[in-house]
Amino acid sequence: MPIYEQTYRRYGGLRLPPCRGWWVIARTGLASALLDRRFVGLLLLAWAPFLVRAVQIYASANFQQVGFLAPTVETFRTFIAQQSTFMFFVTVYAGAGLIADDRHANALQLYLSKPVTRSEYVVGKSVILVVLLLAVTWLPAMALLLWQVTLTGDAFLLTNSHLGPAIMVFSVIEALVAALPMLALSSLSSSRRFVSVLYAGVVLFSGGLATALGAETGRGWWSWLSPEHALAAVGDAIFRIQTPSSAPIALAAVALAAIVLVSLVVLRRTVCAVDVVSS
Amino acid sequence: MLSDLVTPERLANPTAELDRVTVHYGGTPALRDVSVTFERGTVGLLGPNGAGKSTMLRSLLGLVRSDSGTMRVMGLDVAEAAREIRSRVGYMPERDAHVPGMTAVSFVAYCGELSGLPSSDAMQRAHEVLYYVGLGEARYRKLETYSVGMKQRAKLAQALVHDPDLLLLDEPTSGMDPGGRDEMLDLIRDLGRAKGVSLIMSSHVLPDIEYACDHVVMLDRGRVAAHAAIATLTGHGAGVFEMRVKSDSGRMLTALQEAGIDCNEAGDGALRVTLPAGGTARDLFQVAAAARLQVRHLRPSVPTLEDAFARAVGAPR
Question: Fewer CB within 10 Å: C terminus or N terminus of chain B?
Answer without folding.
Answer: N
